[in-house]
Write a structure and sequence with these properties.
Helix content: 25-40%
Order of helices and strands: EEEHHEHEHEEHHEHEHEEHEHEEHHHH
Distance between the termini: 32 Å
Number of helices: 14
Oligomer: single chain
Shape: globular
Strand order of the largest sheet: 1-12-11-2-5
Number of strands: 14
Low-confidence stretches: 385-407
Largest sheet: 5 strands, mixed
Strand content: 15-25%
Length: 409
């Protein structure tokens, strides 16, 4: 029987020596821009500017902007992220181990290892197309000497585009499972990230688990997804008899809101605890109790931030956002199209978003968009401590069931 122990920060007894921070993103992730219309239309000033810009684009190009043709890069370099997570974990008197999982890229881990920072694993968040859906698997702790070769095989499957010679998914999952120090985590399983509709997504998820669930080692409890979704993930862990591990899913400046605590002295020992012993201790940090929408708006403000301490080529947000203007020139950074600066109306929109994400509005956000209060989490944890389940915690019923899906952490 596996056991996942869920703990509130206020109840943490500091009995562990190591903090493991899973699921982080750096500049090597390419993130979709499909969230832009959703958020732009949420706020009056921003929506006005967005509609004017979209109408101007359509008038000039003959069609509305296609946000599926662009991407943005998270602001942090790998070492910056490691330092940020380490600072957060050291405040808890924990020795830090951080697993960076950029989308379909191990460049962050390779950078760190080449710089002599080798205590952190080489990992990635692997995009796995399946039927009409796709799933994200956290592939943690690839062997350094084979990491590039393994990743190439994984990405051949991801980007196969109907190529018959592409690797077989069962073979790839089996290959990963046979590496004893690798940890395979099904990340945010109930997020309809491909936007095909929750029912169709869940149907594909069920089929995926029937075919490949025996290769998965843990299910993620995600720090940037609503709690009702994490509850469904807990039920899935029960069904598959798997432990849960944390996944902060940070993309910006703030440290992960969920971590694992352990006495493992290295990541391989942590993997053994999860894979072999099916044991996991997840610590929920206070930031998770804030309004999720507020946290997401604050993250958008950081995506659109200007950082004078960054390399010159990545200081401005327009240097980190790329878009296809559908004029035959392909994907360019916004800065290259705007000659290094941002138009005045975009600067106004960014100021509005930063104001909405300012700390003094946090209380108001919690009223508008009910947060997972500390007392609610505490009741859930108390319930789990006196209820025997195979996953080790039983949460309350969803309290954000009516909430629309939000496509960006």
């Amino acid at each position: 029987m596996n056991k996942t122990n869920l703990m509130l920060h206020s109840h943490y007894d500091k009995a562990h020596s190591t903090g493991v921070s899973l699921h982080c993103h750096t500049k090597y992730s390419r993130e979709f821009l499909d969230f832009v219309p959703y958020y732009a239309r949420m706020f009056p000033i921003v929506s006005t500017i967005f509609n004017l810009a979209s109408n101007r684009f359509e008038k000039k190009n003959g069609s509305p902007p296609n946000f599926n043709l662009g991407h943005w890069e998270p602001p942090l370099e790998p070492l910056q992220l490691i330092e940020s997570e380490a600072a957060s974990l050291e405040l808890l008197h924990l020795r830090p181990i951080v697993s960076i999982t950029d989308h379909d890229s191990i460049e962050a881990g390779l950078d760190l290892h080449s710089s002599g920072v080798s205590q952190h694993p080489i990992s990635l968040e692997w995009t796995v197309p399946f039927r009409e859906a796709y799933f994200h698997l956290g592939i943690h702790n690839l062997p350094p000497l084979q990491a590039k070769e393994i990743t190439n095989h994984l990405l051949e499957y991801t980007f196969r585009n109907g190529v018959e010679s592409a690797p077989n998914l069962d073979d790839l999952m089996s290959m990963l499972n046979q590496i004893p120090d690798v940890l395979i985590v099904l990340n945010h399983p109930y997020w309809d990230i491909e936007m095909i509709g929750q029912e169709r997504h869940d149907e594909a998820l069920g089929q995926f688990n029937r075919q490949y669930g025996h290769y998965v080692h843990a299910i993620e409890v995600n720090g940037f997804r609503p709690w009702f979704e994490n509850q469904l993930a807990r039920e899935l862990a029960d069904e598959l008899d798997l432990p849960m591990v944390s996944g902060g899913d940070r993309h910006c400046l703030e440290a992960n809101s969920m971590i694992n605590v352990t006495d493992a002295t290295c990541f391989s020992e942590f993997v053994e605890e999860v894979r072999k012993d099916k044991q996991s201790e997840v610590l929920i940090l206070p930031v998770y109790s804030q309004s999720l929408t507020y946290r997401q708006v604050r993250s958008i403000g950081q995506i659109l931030g200007h950082f004078s301490e960054f390399p010159v080529s990545r200081r401005r947000w327009s240097q980190r956002v790329y878009f296809d203007w559908q004029d035959g020139r392909g994907v360019d950074s916004l800065a290259s199209r705007w000659n290094g600066g941002e138009p005045r109306h975009y600067r106004l929109a960014v100021k509005a978003i930063n104001m909405l994400g300012s700390p003094w509005l946090a209380t108001l956000w919690n009223l508008i968009d009910p947060a997972m209060s500390a007392s609610t989490i505490e009741k859930a944890v108390q319930s789990s401590n006196c209820t025997e389940t195979s996953a080790g915690f039983a949460m309350h019923q969803p309290f954000l069931e009516s909430r629309p899906d939000i496509p960006i952490p």
